[in-house]
Specification:
Largest sheet: 7 strands, antiparallel
Number of helices: 4
Shape: globular
Structural class: alpha+beta
Helix content: 10-25%
Distance between the termini: 35 Å
CATH architecture of the largest domain: Distorted Sandwich
Number of domains: 2
CATH topology of the largest domain: Glucose Permease (Domain IIA)
CATH superfamily of the largest domain: Glucose Permease (Domain IIA)
Number of strands: 11
């Protein structure tokens, strides 16, 4: 067993040293039993590409599909997260998936009515998450967050924009061209958390 652990760690070191964080993140499966869903009810709309396209909420060739990697900005970039629509819409509470520490709070998106929404980047030790499109939060960087604690309220966008990053990430990233190495597709994680 000791030998296998050493081999695994050696392989992991090689992957990381080759700057292949995306591959390494897939090998290090995030322990799902230790996470909670960001809100109680199941999302109002589907999270996956095919289901999002076919649900009837968005028109053909929409630039607003909620799935990870969806086209944005007249096809100049890709969606770096998943938009999750809670049943309650604007004002709905969002819970932390796990214990963590807030490492960034900043304006994230400004709506056409000039409402400024906020992103909250949380280091959860095994991964980093960007919980975004919040109303302005009432806490600061370095705030310790407990699992299941309410960390924000949904803005007028009526959605939680959720991005998942490899541990060690210190900022959220736009996705133009190649997918950033530290950006992880959160679809499977969220489907498990919402028991889809």
């Amino acid at each position: 067993m000791y030998f296998l652990s050493r081999v695994f760690l050696s392989c992991l070191f090689i992957l990381i040293s080759m700057n292949s964080l995306a591959v390494a993140a897939e090998l290090l499966e995030i322990p799902m039993t230790e996470l909670v869903a960001p809100f109680e009810s199941r999302p109002k709309y589907p999270l996956t590409k095919d289901e999002s396209i076919n649900c009837g909420k968005w028109g053909e060739n929409s630039q607003d599909y909620p799935y990870f990697g969806a086209p944005r900005g007249q096809n100049t970039r890709n969606h770096a997260g998943i938009d999750i629509y809670p049943q309650g819409g604007a004002g709905s509470s969002v819970k932390a998936l796990a214990d963590g520490i807030v490492i960034k709070i900043a304006p994230f998106y400004t709506r056409t009515n000039d409402e400024v929404t906020y992103g909250v980047l949380v280091d959860h030790a095994d991964f980093v998450a960007n919980y975004a499109e919040f109303e302005k939060p009432g806490y600061k960087v370095s705030t310790v967050i407990k699992q299941g604690e309410i960390i924000g309220r949904i803005s007028g966008t009526q959605q939680l924009h959720f991005e998942l990053y490899a541990k060690g990430t210190t900022d959220w990233s736009p996705w133009r061209g190649k997918q950033p190495d530290n950006l992880i597709d959160p679809t499977e994680m969220l489907l498990k958390l919402f028991n889809n």
